[in-house]
Amino acid sequence: MLYPVQNDKRNRLDLSGIWDFRTDPDHVGEAEGWSRGLSGEILPMAVPGSWNEQYADLFNYLDLSWYVRRTYVPSAWQGQRVMLRVGSAPYYAEVYVNGQKVGAHEGGHLPFEFDITDQVKWDEENTVAVSVENNLSPQRVPSGDMDSAIGAFASFPKTTYDFFPFAGLHRPVWLYSVPERHIRDVRVVTDLQGTDGVVRVTVHADAETGRLDLGDVGAHLTFKEGVAEAELRVLGARLWSDKDPYLYDLHVRTEGDHYSLKVGIRTVAVEGGKILLNGEPVQLNGFGRHEDFIASGKGLNLPLLVKDYQLMRWTGANAYRTSHYPYSEEEMMLADQEGFLIIDEIPAVSLNFENDENIAARLRMCQQQIEELIARDKNHPSVVMWCVANEPMPGNLKLAGAGTKEDYQDDPTAEKGEVFLNTLVRQAKDLDPTRPVTVVGLMGGPTAWLAETDVICINRYWGWYILGGQLDEARAGLSAELDRLWEQFGKPIIMTEFGADTMAGMHGQPPVMWTEEYQADYIRFHLEEAGKRDYVAGMQVWNFADFAAVQSIMRVGGLNMKGVFTRQRTPKMAAHVLREFWTKGK
Ligand code: GCB
């Protein structure tokens, strides 16, 4: 799937703005023809945006809702195929044009589109309607409405994770047009030979011939059954990296169509305890994050993106993980431009393996999400790794355990989880053999679940969920565990989460939990221990900023406060500690 562009052959019309909105808790909208227009209690609702943040009354509402907008389609588009594209609509959406259903999509955070050429009216306004619901269910990914989350983790809404399950049209809705005979897909894989960059391009198009141009290098394309391949050699290429994120413009032209995209020439590899970018060891230092902000919720918020990148750079970070779902395409493009190294994650957070019917449903959804994510993000130089699951959960978790086979010998979910996760890892490797694949492991979870991954990614809360308040003991526990994992796997280790909830403005001497001093000391000892170990290939703090959480006794004021910035983006003391470590010598 290609990101829609505006150029000499293609058109794009952004339908972002204020849409008509109405909740449909009784699910009568379809029968009553709401797809042709809403009546009754219509609310103005901003798109992109989460409805939960825009109206206090809708904060906890996750059920069916309708968005409607009217638009002309420019007459200049006649003769082209007209597409309707939705950037993200968690979780299940149905799309209508002029009252006719054109398609449906399941799963949030990834785009989907339909060819609506036959539905378009050229001389009058068209009605676009999208119904969306984000009901929590054990058969969805991520899952919810399960009884497994009890005790301290019981939350409202009843999720299996702690971020708030925002709902709505989170990314722009676009109309776009392409020539009748058009370019359907472009795949770019880059390699290095000496100082030359090799750019292999595969184009899928309804065409006989075409052309590639990248700077002053070009190639002719000859299509066979809709596919053409060519290799471009860039002599003395300027490589893409976190330090110099240089991008070339690649133009693909066929008889009737034109598509262009940015290309970063770079390689990623794993060797022993190192991750190599262009053959040189690189550290992935930064954060786990969330798409989250006041008023916009999980809605695309461009000024926030720019600000967040600037703040991450200020700390010295060069990497982050799209915890716990794919982020917007605009975010990925900014990462290409700004030189961030991304671990790109599907929405598989807190999978469990306890009910065969649910497991089968989740596996299907994870496989769909991997396919859609790789189709969407495959050409971004910033994406250096795929992550197919965050913290899959064994039935009988040994929180502070070593996660050995013996620890889990009586737990049937250990085996089921292994089969499930290995299936996902292999799928991602088959779809994209050019990038490492990982699973982010839960503290105490079975380490066997990580065996097929290329990089050992671990979330650990030494000094928070265990040994809270005891930083010296926590440091010893962390050190021993890191060395044990290195011995077991001999692969690079990234700490993809470590963090301490911290109430901004709360101070203490001695530094006790929740104070800024505690978080600063906690992060300092982690970075010190990581710095002593060559095989640690990155430290990613949980979290970049405080974020909206489900309500529970674990989360003060509805926030997870492990951010080194507040939700409003003011730094806590810990942000300065990161800056001290990560900008040293720069
Ligand atoms: C985790 C999860 C993350 C939570 C975090 C926490 O392990 O991956 O989603 O927010 O812990 O703060 O508890």
Automatic annotation (TrEMBL):
Glycoside hydrolase family 2 immunoglobulin-like beta-sandwich domain: residues covered: 182-266
Keyword Ribonucleoprotein appears in the UniProt entry: no
GO molecular function: beta-glucuronidase activity; carbohydrate binding
Enzyme class: hydrolase
Residue span, Glycoside hydrolase family 2 catalytic domain: 268-584
UniProt keyword annotations, A-Z: Glycosidase, Hydrolase
Glycosyl hydrolases family 2 sugar binding domain span: 15-179
Pfam families: Glyco_hydro_2 (PF00703), Glyco_hydro_2_C (PF02836), Glyco_hydro_2_N (PF02837)
GO biological process, one term: glucuronoside catabolic process
InterPro entries, alphabetized: Beta-gal/glucu_dom_sf (IPR036156), Galactose-bd-like_sf (IPR008979), GH (IPR017853), Glyco_hydro_2 (IPR006101), Glyco_hydro_2_cat (IPR006103), Glyco_hydro_2_N (IPR006104), Ig-like_fold (IPR013783), Ig-like_GH2 (IPR006102)
Protein EC: 3.2.1.31
Family recorded in the similarity comment: Belongs to the glycosyl hydrolase 2 family.
Protein name: Beta-glucuronidase
Provenance organism: Deinococcus reticulitermitis
